[in-house]
From TrEMBL:
Protein name: R13L1/DRL21-like LRR repeat region domain-containing protein
Keyword Nucleotide-binding: no
Database matches in InterPro entries: LRR_dom_sf, LRR_R13L1-DRL21
One Pfam family named in its UniProt record: LRR_R13L1-DRL21
Domain R13L1/DRL21-like LRR repeat region: from-to ranges: 42-112
Entry keywords, A to Z: Leucine-rich repeat
Keyword ATP-binding: no
Domain of life assignment: Eukaryota
Organism: Physcomitrium patens
Database matches in PANTHER family: PLANT BROAD-SPECTRUM MILDEW RESISTANCE PROTEIN RPW8 (PTHR36766), TIR-NBS TYPE DISEASE RESISTANCE PROTEIN-RELATED (PTHR36766:SF30)
Length: 206
């Protein structure tokens, strides 16, 4: 049995981990498994044994307000394509091992109010196409390594009130089609050479 999805939701008490089986609507009638775990607000760390879930494709954490860190073993999620973290207000940084998730396509970070920085290894996410970042009042910069994201197509930043600049290397993301930044009271300049983003179809700043 392969675990394909695991979600945390801090709004409920811990009820355990269970596998729920249902048939996919495909001609092969293969089984897909979903593992949903609900955690209490006081959860401070995740088990290192998570590194056994090498078939995991979707990782979601929500409303775990006391969670301070993610396990270094995160880099063993070699099949992970979607990573979403929301309302984890005690988390100040993401592990460098995040950069080893070379299959990651979507990274969504929302309302992690005390997040100060993103790992420099961010630039190793060579499959990343979509990056959403919102409501992090202490984040002041994005990693220069964004320049390595050759397939980067969507970038959305909202309500990062301490963000003062965007990396000039962003202009190297020639596949970027949608760029949105909203509510950026401390931002004083935009990257140079944005005019070379010839694939850009939506440019929204407000």
């Amino acid at each position: 049995e392969q675990l394909l999805e695991w979600s945390f939701d801090g709004r409920s008490c811990l009820v355990g981990v269970s596998l729920e089986e249902y048939r996919e609507r495909t001609p092969t009638s293969n089984f897909k498994y979903e593992n949903t775990a609900r955690s209490i607000f006081t959860l401070k760390s995740l088990l290192n044994e998570l590194d056994n879930f090498t078939s995991l494709t979707t990782f979601k954490i929500r409303r775990c307000s006391s969670l301070t860190s993610l396990p270094n073993e995160l880099n063993n999620f070699i099949s992970l394509t979607t990573f979403k973290i929301r309302r984890c207000s005690s988390m100040t940084s993401l592990p460098n091992e995040l950069g080893n998730l070379t299959s990651l396509i979507t990274l969504n970070i929302k309302r992690c109010l005390n997040l100060i920085s993103l790992a420099n290894e961010f630039g190793n996410l060579l499959s990343l196409t979509t990056f959403h970042k919102s409501w992090s009042s202490n984040l002041i910069s994005l990693p220069n390594e964004l320049r390595n994201l050759a397939f980067f197509t969507i970038m959305s930043i909202r309500s990062c009130l301490s963000l003062t600049s965007l990396p000039n290397e962003l202009s190297n993301s020639t596949s970027l089609t949608i760029f949105k930044i909203k509510r950026y009271s401390s931002l004083i300049s935009l990257p140079n050479k944005l005019d070379i983003l010839t694939s850009l179809t939506t440019f929204d700043i407000r």
